[in-house]
Amino acid sequence: MNILINKRIFLLVTLVGIQLNVTAKQNSSNSNREELLPIIVNTDEDSNKLPGRSVLKQKNIEQQQADNAANLINILPGVNMAGGFRPGGQTLNINGMGDAEDVRVQLDGATKSFEKYQQGSIFIEPELLRKVTVDKGNYSPQYGNGGFAGTVKFETRDARDFLQENQKIGGLLKYGNNSNNNQKTYSTALVLQNEQKNIDLLLFGSVRNAGDYKRPDNSKILFSKNNQKTGLIKVNWQITPEHLLTLSSVYGIHKGWEPWAAKRDVTSRPTEKEIKDYGIDVAWKRKLVYRDQKDESYSLKYRYLPENNKWINLSVQLSYSKTEQNDTRHEKVTSSFLGTLGNKSWITYSDLTFDISNTSTLNIGRAEHELLFGLQWLKNTRNTLMYHKMKMNDKNYNYGYFQPYYMPSGRQYTQAFYLQDQITWKNIIFSTGVRYDHINNIGQKNFAPRYNDISLGHNYSQKNYNGWSYYLGLNYNVNHYLSLFTNFSRTWRAPVIDEQYETQFLSKTQDRRVSVSATSLNLEKEMINQTRVGGIITLNHLFQENDAFQFRTTYFYHRGKNEIFKTRGVNCVDNAADTNNDVCPKKIIGNYRNLPGYVIQGAELEAYYQSTYLFGELTYSYVKGKRDTSPRNPWGKTSTWIAEIPPRKATATLGFNVPKYYLTVGWRAEFVRRQDRSPSSGDPKASYYLSLPASRGYSLHNLFLSWSPAKIKGMNIKITVDNLFNRAYNPYLGELASGTGRNIKFSLSQKF
What predicted TM-score, i.e. pTM, was given to this entire model? Predict the structure, then answer.
């Protein structure tokens, strides 16, 4: 489907780089209006200093009634959910980059880094959230070693979200129901505050129980049931007016029978013979795994902000995050599952982070300087183990217990410091920053001797990477209405554990010349230069008192070098003609290599209007990306499309408020173009691991309503209808996974 947009106007606006944005400080009437506008995406007050930031506040989050965090932020321009709708089957894609190492995810400051083939990476319960911030691109020295696509920061609820002034005890009871999969959601919160109002405690729990999703044709997405329990504990202690200590803990579990590849849709049905031999229940379970998933995060944050001291604004945070995913296949399976984690598997990803930073404000001449200095220490640990019962008598495979060769165990340590100076002079804001990272990758030998053959390149020794990153930014406030900005960064990332230490077994009878059996200790750092331009115009009181209009546009250009990618296809320069890998010399070849480079560029247009009674939004995002060569043949001469680039997307929202009755009603639509740009267009030999199936365009229409009865204090009723017209669609990044049919969502909450 073609989205009707005048291309000449679009190009003119993009090149000029004018971004219209409303960032006026909210007075009391504006704050009330914001409470009534749950759909509009608001920017923070510092959006002039931090372009490319989108924020979903609590009202936005609650109104959507999303089933998962990825789907929650899918409404933002340039942000797309990848994967399917099964529990734990979602990942994030920002401006065409969707690998876990490219999208940095934080929950209350705790890093989340789970990464597993054909599994999701986002396991955060939307019911727990009060705010989501998306910083697109890597333009801040606070973020290093990857995160090229951007950073998504999820912030959990706080006691202040429930307590009224002088209230010492409070809470929430909430019930939700979704028609599509008969989902029942139960949430409850208890909030306590002491007499001095300097200590508060939040206890929050949520339970989801759901059946299988239905497609628009009413057929079921089999084994998409959701049985999820999540809890949150959060304590704020205002030790003195200058000292604040915050502790948060999040814990979630999910269990059930489901396909091993959670991101995919279709599951092959058992044959008649299988049903006859095992019965229908066991026949199905032989194709599934029983998944036991646990996700937990802990964060301790200390803030010191002395009064009348511009030199100190200190923040110290210690956080720990761990995700466990244990799979067990049915005891009656007989097939070999060496490539899909065997008969049993135990996978754990954990992240330990320490971050300390301070901001000092000082004046030098007529310029004001904000100096940011920080130190970071991070430890990422990947522990993997599987049991392969067909190897239970083979000592070369450690009698069945060993690490999957494609998911090695190991650790990555990061030590870093960063410095940024933001200079304000008259109507100009200039920022410059540097960051230094030192990375230590340490592999772990496989328990199976089969994957510990040094002659085949099975080398798990330590590899170190280090280097500088650079950041520049300029914001020019032309007048009260218009400001222009540009940002530039040069950053890098080291290989993750999988990329560095993945290996393969090569038997004595195989031709070593065509093997890719070795680990990849020869990998270089992946580099990227990122540039964006745009502007900000502020228009308040446009048509009536206290209304606001914003229009934003951003153009970005990313140039990557030394992209880390799997070695598949042409193995060496000697076979650059792509004829016969037998011409490759007899040498060890690693599982990963560095590709020459790529370009990803695009633009975003956004327009928002808010008033007491009426609100609306229009957004449009466009991304295209090409590699210099085919990833299958880095020595070839033909550039190829990048498979993970999302199609063009436009959204529209229109709604109205009735403040007298605390009522909000609106319509939202999403228009997605077809995506037919495939790597195979430049490389006909590109196979499934380099391409995604082409997709058709589609449009989806949603309705939403929020009502707080004036006579029942604290009560709120929300109704949302997703896919109003029950349109069939297949999101491109879902790899042909079907979208869901019409879904009527209802929730009733009561604060006390």
Answer: 0.91
